[in-house]
Amino acid sequence: MINNPLISSFNTLHGVPPFELFDVSFYLPAFDFAIAQGRKEIDEIIKSSEMPDFKNTIEAIENAGSLLTKVSNVFFNLNHAHTNPEIQAVARDVSPRLTEFNNDIWLNDVLFEKVKQVFDLKDVFNLNAEQNQLLENTYKAFVRKGALLNSKDKEKYRDISKQLSDLSLQFGENVLAETNDFHLHINNIDDLDGLPDSLIEYAAEQAKEMEKDGWVFTMHMPSFLPFMKYSNQRELRRKMFIAYSSRANHNNNRNNQTVIKQIVTLRLEKAQLLGYKCYADFVLEERMAKETSRVIDFLNELLDASIDYAKNDVHQVKEYAKKIGFTNEFEKWDFAFYSEKLKNEKYSIDDEVLKPYFKLENVEMGVFDLANQLWGLTFVESLKIPVYHSDVKAFEVFDENGEFISVLYVDYFPRSSKQGGAWMTSYRDQKKIDNKTIRPVVSLVMNFSRPTATKPSLLTHNEVSTFLHEFGHALHGMLSNVTYESLSGTNVYRDFVELPSQLMENWSIEKEWLKKVALHYKTSEPIPDVLIQKIIDSSNFQSGYAMVRQLSFGLVDMSWHSITESFGGNVVDFERHAMQPTLLLPDIEGTCTCTSFSHIFDGGYAAGYYGYKWAEVLDADAFEMFKENGIFDSLIAKKFRNNILEKGGVAHPMDLYVAFRGSEPSIEPLLKRSGLGKK
Fold first, then answer.
1. Distance CA 652, CA 678 (A)
2. Is 597 inside any structural domain?
3. What residues are annotated to the active site?
């Protein structure tokens, strides 16, 4: 075991993982060793004869299992970003064991009694604010994870936890397999009618990789979205739409309907075991929103404000389609196509007009430069830092004083080994040990279009926004400056974590920033002012529709997690009932959103998807402060850094926000920005 590089000190620049040394065969032994070490560290706390205090109990629990955290961060990040069947098998093997390890901590009576003693005597220990927060979080974690249950219920809690761990993995594996399984293979050149040259070239390269003639289109976003927007072949759009919208909803061993039933029922059982009426009540106790009814009221308030706009958006698209000769029944696979045409007619702009100005390397440089203007950060690519795939680039990040603050990986392109979507994660969170700061190792994972033989990677404007969004999360991780790992970076309330990410998106429609970033990939000429104005003018195009679409996800999430009785019904019927208030186009037989809704069934957003909209209220309100003082104002940026980005979870999010803004947020800036305010 001593030769296993996963459990050795990483002898690399900044102590990053030496990915090239990791063989799949190392993972299970590394987990075994790290779990055993973690148990030993916990046992030492339990068996200690010293009077429990903050250092020997709360800090000791915080630091216990650090090797296991290190191994887990490497393994599970790779399972999402660069997996294979062998890694997935290890995940299925080890996940229940990790759940058991954690349950053995949270359900240990002696350990909890020590924590409770410290908690009850907290005024004696003269703790600072961050120590108080850690103590409170630790005590709450024990209670919320079953410490007060009787022996029989503790065993039930253990069983539920293990089942949920297995089911979450199964859900994600099913979605990835279904996404990779489908491809639209085209041999007839006429079937490419309407598609942009860049997509056709990309599809030809996809076909070549699969050793096929012609062109191949997949469910990955750089292929799927432009196909739906531009293909003149309605039947092929229908085929693509149904394939995408029915993932994990087929009569095969990857059907997620049963998985969903089991997950929501087990979550309910867990919540009720702990004394809550429903799972949402359990989750929201530790969120800014606090209560299930408040979240539902919040979503319905936004729905009331936007539904008429959304209906009008759809009506306009339908009328436009009729005007240019469409005579069929209007279906969901028609919306993106005719919406894009209407947008082009109204603003003379579409993705294909803009993409030549958004070369990935230029956008990357522009995002980094923005961070430099606001916070003095510099990004230096390093070939000395190991990466886990040839697509990945690694950067050293330095602050305004030239001090190292983080490693940043960027992983831009889709592949069959990577889950869909875009996310920020970390291989190491920031913390302090003996007054020495351990700097973080952060990663951004995206699914942008690959370069082709004739073109570099060119982004849509929406992908530019996605880059900024995930980079905001990265800033939250990289700029963290706290003592305890569990309070650092993005370890905050789920409905607060999206504030930095969504704040950064605002620069994507600011002329001063776009002028620096948007340079034509052939000529290096900056984007013309007329196109920038069209980006700004069109930024609220279909905003009502977009708002209601997001609200539909939030409402179905809350519906699943506010049930108070075990669910044995039909998943599709439940989904359609929950989404009925947001329905703008007829439902399609065989499709189901929830069977591939990884955010809530294979992620951390259960009873929390509303958080995107909640944080939009915060970010719209916060960006008003930048607009009032200048969007590159370093003093406002410093205030945001000092009160939000550096603070992680050391205080209640609203306290942090008020310290930055001076007041609690208003919903009006969001409605105003979205063009949905009162007329």
1. 32
2. yes
3. 470
Residues 6 or more apart whose CB falls under 8 angstroms from that of 664 comprise: 654, 657, 658
Give yes or no: residues 414 and 447 share one domain: yes
Q: What is the reported pLDDT for 677?
A: 64
Q: Please identify every stretch of the chain with a pLDDT value under 70, giving residue numbers as ranges.
A: 1-2, 677-679
Q: What is the pLDDT of residue 674?
A: 85
Tell me how far apart the alpha carbons of residues 317 and 296 are, in angstroms, rounded to a whole number: 29
Q: What is the DSSP string of 456-515?
A: --B--HHHHHHHHHHHHHHHHHHT---S-GGGSTT-S-TTTTHHHHHHHHGGGG-HHHHH
Q: Cα 500 from chain centroid?
A: 13
pLDDT for res 679 = 44
3-class DSSP state for residue 398?
A: strand
CA 378 to chain centre: 25
| Domain presence at residue 343 | no
Residue 175 located in a structural domain: no
- State whether 518 and 392 are in the same domain: yes
Q: With contact defined as beta carbons under 8 Å apart, do 90 and 27 qualify? A: yes
Q: Are 279 and 271 in contact (CB under 8 A)?
A: yes
Q: Which residue has the tokens 């995940």?
A: 91
| 342 domain-assigned | no
HSE-CB for 83 with a 13 A CA cutoff: 23
How many Cα atoms are found within 13 Å in the side-chain-facing hemisphere of 651?
Answer: 15
* CB of 152 closer than 8 Å to CB of 672: no
Q: Which phi and psi angles does 426 have, rounded to 5°? A: -140, 145
3-state secondary structure (DSSP) of residue 344? helix
Closest among 543, 486, 575 to 674, alpha carbons compared: 543
* Three-state SS at 431: strand
Query: Is the CB of residue 607 less than 8 Å from the CB of residue 494?
Result: no
Same structural domain for residues 376 and 519? yes
Residue 274 near residue 282 (C-beta atoms within 8 A): yes
Q: What is the CA radius of gyration of the chain?
A: 25
Q: For residue 581, give the nearest of 231, 300, 225 by alpha carbon.
A: 300
Place of tokens 């104002």: 633
* Alpha-carbon distances of 240 from 244, 395, 629, rounded to whole Å: 6, 37, 46
Domain that holds residue 322: 260-326+552-604
Cα 635 from Cα 374, distance rounded (Å): 8
- pLDDT value, residue 678: 53
Note whether 530 and 625 are same-domain residues: yes
Total domain count, the chain: 4
Whether 129 contacts 651, CB under 8 Å: yes
Amino acid at 56: N
The reply to whether 619 and 510 lie within a common domain is yes
Tokens of residue 405, six digits: 């603050």
Euclidean distance between CA atoms 360 and 463, whole angstroms = 10
* CATH number for the domain that contains residue 406: 1.10.1370.40
Structure-token pair, residue 343? 């947008």
pTM tops 0.85, yes or no: yes
Quick one: tokens of 167? 């089911």
Residues 496 and 566 in one domain: no
Reported as type and span, the H/E element at residue 203 is helix 197-209
Q: What distance in Å separates the CA atoms of residue 325 and residue 162, rounded to the nearest whole number? A: 56
